[in-house]
Amino acid sequence: MTVRQPRYSKEEFAKVGDKIYESQIRPQVEEGNYGLIVAIDIETGDFEVDASEIAACDRLEARRPDAQIWIVRIGSRHVRRFAGCTRRTT
Questions:
Q1: What DSSP string describes 1-57?
Q2: Which of 47, 52, 77, 82 is the most buried (most CB within 10 A)?
Q3: Does a structural domain hold residue 18?
Q4: pLDDT digits (tens, 9 = 90+) for 61-74
Q5: Model pTM greater than 0.70?
Q6: Is residue 28 part of a domain?
Q7: Is 47 in contact with 30 (CB distance < 8 Å)?
Q8: What does the pLDDT look like over 13-48, one tens digit per residue?
Q9: What is the three-state SS of 74-90?
Q10: What range defines the domain where residue 31 resides?
Q11: Closest alpha carbon to 67 in 45, 90, 50, 89
């Protein structure tokens, strides 16, 4: 099994992934899919949508074995949240 290596810095990865999502993918998937995951190959623009990150990535990797995958949650700035509530300030 070959280990895939990142070919971009974290900053470049995020910048390219977000740009592709906003300009090409978001208009196609946003309506009626709030909360689902989009896995995007930042080199080709190919993508998969699923409720599961793993399922979306697996399907994308089946088509593009060397994909450089960026993940976005439709309708949210965050893929995951680690806190159950918002922090209060006094």
A1: -PPP---S-HHHHHHHHHHHIIIIIHHHH-TT-TT-EEEEETTT--EEEESSHHHHH
A2: 47
A3: yes
A4: 999 999 999 999 99
A5: yes
A6: yes
A7: no
A8: 899 999 999 999 999 999 999 999 999 999 999 999
A9: CCCCCCCCCCCCCCCCC
A10: 10-73
A11: 45
